[in-house]
Amino acid sequence: MTAVDMVDVVEAPAGTVIGHRTGRVRRFLGVPFAEAPVGARRFAPPVPRGRFTRPFDASRHGATSQRVPLFTTTTIPEPSVPGEDVLNLSVVAPANGVSCPVLVWIHGGGFLAGSPASAWYDGRAFARDGIVTVTPGYRLGVDGFAPLDGVLPNLGLRDLLLALDWVRENIGAFGGDPGRVTVAGQSAGGGAVLALLSSPLGSGRFHRAVSVSGGFFEVDADTARHFAGRLGDRLGVPPTRDGFGGLTVESVQQGVRLLRSQRGDDGPLVLGPVVGDDILPVPIAEGLVVHGHDVPLLLGATGDEFDGGAPGIRDAAARAAGTRVTDTLFRAACPRAAASRRDATAGTWLYSFEWPSPVLGGAVHCADIPFFFDVLDAPGTAAALGPQPPSKLATSMHADLAAFVHGRSPAWEPATGRLGDPAREYGRPGARPVADTTGVFDPVVAAGSVTSEAC
Question: Which residues of the chain have pLDDT under 70?
Fold first, then answer.
């Protein structure tokens, strides 16, 4: 800890947790919410962590499910932290907050990679605005989503449901209000949000939802089994619980990385939520028709997602393929979700992030995260966004998200699920500064809507 840090002790139902406080921000990192998924627990549903018998040191990030990054370079810096206690979460809270709303942030990574320990997910700006941020880890890839014989499906989603249970039982000790929980996530994390919102098991575990570049990311069981079979062939084991259970997580993830680097007939998603169990009895779009109607939903996508690219690097064919992925996986999911929720009692609001990164060549996937979290000074942002990304845009986007978590309705009209629905546009070149298509949003008002620790 630095000279300005102070030890911060919390007595929670889970036990004594020792974190630290820097200025007006408290951090409790890597707190286990489940027993480590090792041995007989590796391919089993998560087991709630027993009460700590001694004070838990929460001064550093916990182990991550990601052991081997899926790609050699990623837009978001997502570190891998060694260890087997991967079902842990971090809490960032206001120093003097009481009954603050809670934001539970689910990281992305295609259900194969990603890390909750990224500096881009740091909740210090939310703490400034009277919000407690929780970032849970969950099992990835084969361990979290492969439909193996004898293994309960969707273990990664079950991990997230248990993390939400931990929040309900413990977050009050950290200054959070368990009755005001917003579940949010980006990419695969946004897809997980929609899956949980559509699930009968999601009911009562959260009260608002945000999907950032999410979508209907359920994976056909045959597609997942085919990929697991190809992976088993490469690794020399049968695609079974015992076969993969005899390998280390690192070797399995390295095999996934090598297999995904090859050209083949695999689609953009090879493992992920599978339909047909108690969590997802029906496809996500169908589940949204009947579940989550009392939960307000904010969702959107970036303007380019995967059809950007630095000038001179991507050819026309690659860009066209990226456009198809952008439209079918991400942007089309927004009006489709609104249409599925047409009879919901709570509103659905759409947005689009349009600011083009001069480095990444467009308003591409992941470029919006530092704006929503208001962390333009975080490591890796200059490499992705250039040396001077617009701070006013970050102020406005963060204020919108913070206001939503606080329980306010967005300033633009909700979607109706029909053609021509209004959508808030962030950073469109040539438009009014930080304007939206409806023309009713005042960025100055939004920027000042949440500015203190008052909860």
Answer: 1-4, 263-266, 308-326, 429-455
Please check whether residue 66 is in contact with residue 6, taking contact to mean a CB–CB distance below 8 angstroms. no
Predicted pLDDT of residue 327: 73
Contact 93, 455 (CB under 8 A): no
CA 412 – CA 393 distance, rounded (Å): 17
Burial of 396 (0-12, 13-18, 19+ CB in 10 A): buried
pLDDT digits (tens, 9 = 90+) for 359-404: 998 999 999 999 999 999 999 999 999 999 999 999 999 999 999 9
Active-site option among 65, 90, 118, 187: 187
Which of the following is catalytic: 305, 354, 413, 453?
A: 305
Catalytic residue (choose from 20, 61, 207, 365): 365
Task: State how far the alpha carbon of 276 is from the alpha carbons of 202, 392, 415, in Å.
Answer: 16, 45, 29
- Give every CB contact of residue 198 below 8 A, 6+ residues apart in sequence: 280, 282, 284, 285, 286, 287, 288, 291, 292
Q: What are the structure tokens assigned to 435, written together? A: 């304007």
pLDDT on residue 70: 87
| CB-count exposure of residue 8 (10 Å: 0-12, 13-18, 19+) | buried
Active site residue 406: no
Cα(448)–Cα(410) distance, rounded to whole angstroms?
A: 14
CA 140 to chain centroid, in Å, comes to 13
Is residue 305 part of the annotated active site? The answer reads yes
pTM: 0.92
Residue 187 a catalytic site member: yes
**Residues 273-300: pLDDT tens digits?**
999 999 999 999 999 999 999 999 999 9
